[in-house]
Amino acid sequence: MRTSEENSLRVEVDNGGPDAVARRRAFAILSTMTKLLQDAIERLKDLPESRQDELAAALIEVTEGDQGDYHLTDEQVEEVRRRRANPNRKFVSVAEARKRLRHFGV
Question: pLDDT tens across 2-56, in order?
């Protein structure tokens, strides 16, 4: 028979608090994503081999670029340095910057 301390510990572990809730949510999301990915792959199996290769290459390209970090090319770095070195460089307001970004769909 369990003591009340063991029962309260069991309840705490079962109900888990914030960490357990976060783990359950993460598991649920991963399970859903995994199922969705499995369904997508099942659909791809019916496509011609050339189309499968095309889509696989696209998926690989997306995942390779999905590192969260953006890296400038050497040319871009030099352009930033050139512009920052200009003592007469032009600044725009936040509103103007937002307007310009919206123009590009950002």
Answer: 444 444 444 344 455 666 666 666 556 556 667 888 888 888 889 999 999 998 8
- Which sequence spans correspond to the domains of the chain? 4-103
Q: Which residues contact 56 (CB under 8 A, 6 or more apart)?
A: 44
CB contact at 8 A, 44 and 52: yes
Q: From CA 3, how far away is CA 11, in angstroms rounded?
A: 12
Please tell me the distance from the alpha carbon of residue 33 to that of residue 103, in angstroms, as a whole number: 33
Q: Is 6 helix (H, G, I), strand (E, B) or coil?
A: helix
C-alpha distances in angstroms, 74 versus 27, 78, 89?
Answer: 41, 6, 21
